[in-house]
Design brief:
Radius of gyration: 29 Å
CATH superfamily of the largest domain: Immunoglobulins
CATH class of the largest domain: Mainly Beta
Family: Belongs to the HAPLN family. Belongs to the LDLR family.
Shape: globular
Helix content: 10-25%
Organism: Takifugu rubripes
Keywords: Disulfide bond, Extracellular matrix, Glycoprotein, Hyaluronic acid, Immunoglobulin domain, Repeat, Secreted, Signal
Subcellular location: Secreted, Extracellular space, Extracellular matrix
Largest sheet: 6 strands, mixed
Distance between the termini: 85 Å
Number of strands: 31
Main location: secreted
Length: 529
């Protein structure tokens, strides 16, 4: 035994001597020296993360936790009150295991996991494991996936492009089985574009000036043209061959960002040209040479901004070019807001994050939208999903608890994450197509009473997207806390004042109170007919 100890001691001395020869200084008093000789900040010692290559910073850490703390299996210490609170605070989830005796019985609208945790009953058999023991996805009837999705053996639905992409996305890893070269070369379903990494996205998302592929390949080889409101713009397109355009059909189309039908702009066959709808007498083909079929738009309007496609059909050959027209002085207004569900922070995988935004009459925000919101002053210290599958958070005021005071302000990034990982989400809500208002009532209401009160007024209880759009885009201001559709209570302040958000304009969040025991006012929303 002592021989082994002496060998280890001698090895450490040799390593330290080697470091001195190479010019590596000894560690400072505020640092910890790994067994291999390198120095790390002392606060990284026994913090649950391996920082030394030899793992020596996480050895012999059992006694580091205080009496009022819980020690995760990986060594991290957390407050004891965080154990069995329904939130996964340990990276290995050990704080939420074996909690069935510590949990109260779940509400009628909840499902109790085998571990004792309560989750919304709607998450049961939705194809995504939310219980630590995956009990919410056991004994479920087999689901049928959308044509653009791939169905795992466990019933979960994932994007078809994630099949055989080298990363396991099904909980049972069946998306990476039997991945022949022929399968890898399969194309996406009709009406979809296949990213270089294999993901399938709706074709209308190609060249829409938003990154939707994780590899950003949907915005490659796309033209981007800027035009002034009321001015002219030329969208480029050329015939693929040097022959004349006799017998060749050229069709310009404007694509929409939603499920609306495509909008015909111009159709040309030989010497005959036809324009359509609001583009009549405003567009023509430039024709600078025999191959030039660029589209010239006169008197640019707000609604002209968007995605365009030039289709060239020569017999059985079809080619297409796509791009985006941006109109200066014309901005699609909207607001980015952070969101987490009643179940608490960091509880949304990518699929649920996307759905959560839709349920609040919003969409999951893009990187560009969050970037603009940050430039406009958004500062938020909790990481959230974005539409490209990345996880980020905006910091305008660098500080220690939010990524460090020494790091520059900006969009802090966790990069592309496993789609089953749990975070919050950033949503984007645009201009309201209806009326958001405070419902005057003689007394405060429970949640059920609030829902009914809006219905009695010919409206619906407002959603989180509604209150943010009304606050940001319409300057709505009211210092009264009211129920919203997700069970949260909030109030919008656009004019900061004493007792009403004195330091900043904001939508104030009260929380998710007990729906049956707590009483508040209510915000309603009446859609345009």
């Amino acid at each position: 035994m002592w021989a082994e100890v002496w060998k280890l001691a001698l090895l450490q001395l040799l390593l330290l001597e080697f470091c001195w020869v190479k010019g590596v200084p000894a560690c400072e008093s505020h640092e910890f020296q790994c067994k291999l000789g390198n120095c790390i900040p002392a606060v990284w010692r026994c913090d649950g993360d391996v920082d030394c290559a030899d793992n020596s910073d996480e050895e012999d850490c059992e006694s580091q936790c205080e009496a009022n703390q819980f020690r995760c299996k990986d060594g991290l210490c957390i407050p004891a009150s965080w154990q069995c609170d329904g939130d996964k605070d340990c990276s290995d989830y050990t704080d939420e295991l074996e909690c069935i005796d510590l949990q109260e019985s779940c509400q009628a609208e909840d499902f109790m996991c085998g571990s004792g945790r309560c989750i919304p009953a709607t998450w049961r058999c939705d194809g995504s494991g939310d219980c630590p023991d995956n009990s919410d996805e056991m004994n479920c009837p087999r689901r049928t996936c959308d044509p653009a999705m791939y169905q795992c053996e466990n019933g979960e639905c994932i994007l078809a492009g994630w099949r055989c992409d080298g990363a396991s996305d099904c909980g049972d890893e069946t998306d990476e089985e039997n991945c022949t070269q022929a399968y890898k070369e399969m194309t996406c379903p009709p009406g979809h574009f296949q990213c270089k990494y294999g993901e399938c996205i709706p074709a209308r998302w190609k060249c829409d000036d938003e990154f939707d592929c994780s590899d950003q390949s949907d915005e490659e080889n796309c033209f981007r043209i800027f035009g002034d409101l009321g001015g002219n713009a030329t969208l480029p397109c050329r015939l693929p061959s040097k022959r004349s355009n006799t017998g060749i059909q050229v069709k310009w189309i404007k694509l929409e960002n939603d499920e609306s039908p495509l909008e015909d702009v111009l159709l040309s066959l030989g010497t005959k040209t036809k324009t359509f709808g609001r583009f009549e007498n405003r567009v023509f083909l430039q024709g600078a040479d025999s191959r030039d079929v660029s589209l010239v738009i006169h008197d640019i309007a707000v609604e002209d901004m968007g995605q365009y496609r030039c289709e060239v059909i020569d017999g059985t050959k079809r080619t297409a070019e796509e791009g985006f027209l941006k109109v200066k002085g014309c901005v699609i207004e909207g607001v980015v807001f952070p969101y987490f569900p009643p179940s608490g922070r960091y509880n949304l995988n990518f699929t649920k994050a996307t759905q959560a935004c839709l349920e609040q009459d919003a969409v999951i925000a893009s990187h560009n939208q969050l970037l603009k919101a940050w430039r406009d002053g958004l500062d938020w210290c909790n990481a959230g999903w974005l539409s490209d599958g990345s996880v980020r958070y905006p910091i305008t005021n660098a500080r220690e608890p939010c990524g460090g005071a020494d790091n520059p302000a900006g969009l802090r990034s966790y990069g592309l994450q496993d789609r089953r990982s749990l975070f919050d989400v950033f949503c984007f809500s645009s201009t309201l197509k209806g009326t958001f208002y405070w419902l005057v009532q003689p007394e405060r209401l429970t949640f059920a009473e609030a829902v009914q009160a809006c219905l009695d007024d010919g409206a619906q209880i407002a959603k989180v997207g509604h209150i943010f759009s009304a606050w940001k885009l319409e300057g709505y201001d009211r210092c009264d806390a009211g129920w919203l559709a997700d069970g949260s209570v909030r109030y919008p302040i656009s004019r900061p004042r004493k007792n009403c958000s004195p330091t900043e304009s904001a939508v104030r969040f009260v929380g998710f109170p007990d729906k049956t025991q707590k009483s508040f006012g209510v915000y309603c929303y009446k859609a345009e007919q």
